[in-house]
Design goal:
Layout: H1 10-27, H2 41-70, H3 76-99, H4 108-129, H5 137-162, H6 173-196, H7 201-224, H8 239-246, H9 248-274
């Protein structure tokens, strides 16, 4: 199901694009998608187009993701930033997942990461758009995808343990643990919907929050930790990059806690009035 697109503020979009363009010269140094020497010109043009679409989508997505997190939830700026975030990240993740199997170096973990990011992005956006979430085919498909991601994480951990380098296609063990935990948590969420047949308002908002924040975390982690060579030597492997990469996680926990606390407070006030 494709989320309904809301009108996008030209000013917001212009700011996002301008900031993304400012980032591009550095991000572009991380180029790993290119046609081979001797390939036809159209293949070189196609590879460059995909690379720049991936870069632009990721840059705009991370910026508008921050705008969405910083703005008042449910209001116009939040909704419009969220729409741009969805479109930009969908582009970046789809290209990443689709191209990774065809790169010269092994990219199996990146394929799984792209699929996981797309799944969380789509299901998180659907949770925001659907006021009345009821169990159906999307949740069944989501459960299958989440279980497949979990299984891939376990498989990669076993492959990494058997590898002399401890990695799979250059990806470190923490990435595989991430697949396993995120996949299992997402699968539990789909089972929750299927068993209960529908979601309460609070559960729906929580589902939207954690899935969108985790999708943003995949992007921030991939950029700040996976492309450290684009940053000045002084900050490579520094705590700053780790803070920026992990930032979506504590923000996610804060908003999840706030949603639950606000719900508890409303119920307490309602009970006091009724008494």
């Amino acid at each position: 199901m494709t989320p309904r697109t809301l009108p996008v503020s030209p000013v917001l979009f212009a700011v996002a694009v301008a900031a993304a363009v400012a980032l591009m010269p550095s991000i572009a140094l991380a180029e790993n998608l290119e046609a081979r020497a001797g390939d036809p010109a159209w293949m070189h043009l196609g590879a460059n187009a995909l690379l720049w679409a991936h870069i632009a989508g990721g840059a705009i997505g991370m910026i508008t993701g921050v705008v969405a997190l910083a703005s008042r939830k449910g209001q116009s700026v939040h909704r419009k930033a969220g729409t741009v975030f969805f479109l930009a990240m969908f582009t970046a993740y789809a290209i990443g997942a689709g191209v990774a199997p065809f790169l010269q170096t092994g990219q199996r973990p990146n394929v799984v990461a792209g699929i996981m990011a797309l799944y969380l992005l789509i299901s998180g956006t659907m949770a925001a758009r659907q006021r009345d979430v009821k169990a159906g085919a999307p949740e069944v498909i989501g459960l299958i995808v989440a279980l497949a991601i979990t299984a891939a994480g376990v498989t990669f951990m076993q492959m990494g343990a058997a590898s002399p380098t401890g990695t799979v296609d250059g990806s470190p063990p923490p990435a595989f643990f991430l697949f396993t935990v995120a996949g299992a948590f997402a699968a539990a969420g789909e089972l929750h919907v299927l068993v209960r047949k529908q979601l309460s308002r609070v559960s729906r908002i929580a589902r939207h929050l954690w899935r969108m924040c985790f999708s943003l975390f995949i992007a921030s982690g991939s950029f700040f930790l996976g492309q450290q060579q684009v940053f000045p030597k002084a900050v490579q492997d520094s705590a700053l990059l780790y803070v920026l990469a992990l930032a979506p996680l504590p923000i996610m926990l804060f908003w999840l806690g706030k949603v639950r606390f606000d719900d508890w407070r409303r119920r307490r006030v309602k009970a006091a009035v009724a008494a």
